[in-house]
């Protein structure tokens, strides 16, 4: 859960700065979608959390 909360904070911060600088492109759409999936408890949140956890574990193993 610590990873999920920190990712929500990270996505929220990035989205805030993207919206503030008015650079809304494909990257901003990805950040907004990621923020929404982590923030909301939808059916898609669990697979995204699993994917994120796997990526974090893989990155820590490098």
Would you write up a description of this structure?
- This protein has 62 residues and is an all-alpha fold.
- The protein has one domain (2-60).
- Helix content is 79%, strand content 0%.
- It has helices at residues 2-20, 26-39, 45-60.
- The longest helix is centred in the first third of the chain and has 19 residues, at 2-20.
- The chain is globular and about 35 Å long.
- The model has no long low-confidence stretch (mean pLDDT 75).
What's the arrangement of secondary structure elements?
Elements: H1 2-20, H2 26-39, H3 45-60
Helix pairs in contact: 1-2
Number of strands: 0
Helical content band: over 70%
The average pLDDT is 75
Largest sheet, strands/sense/barrel: none
Number of domains: 1
State the separation between the terminal residues, measured CA to CA: 22 Å
How many DSSP H or I helices? 3
Overall body shape: globular
Uncertain stretches: none
Radius of gyration (CA) equals: 12 Å
Beta percentage is: under 5%
Order of helices and strands: HHH
Class of secondary structure makeup: mainly alpha
Short description:
The chain has helices at 2-20, 26-39, 45-60. The protein is mainly α and 62 residues long.
Question: What are the key terms here?
Answer:
mainly alpha; 3 helices; globular
């Amino acid at each position: 859960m610590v990873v999920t909360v920190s990712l929500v904070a990270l996505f929220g911060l990035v989205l805030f700065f993207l919206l503030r600088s008015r650079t809304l492109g494909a990257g901003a759409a990805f950040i907004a979608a990621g923020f929404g999936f982590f923030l909301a408890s939808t059916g898609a949140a669990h697979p995204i959390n699993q994917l994120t956890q796997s990526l974090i574990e893989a990155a820590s193993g490098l």
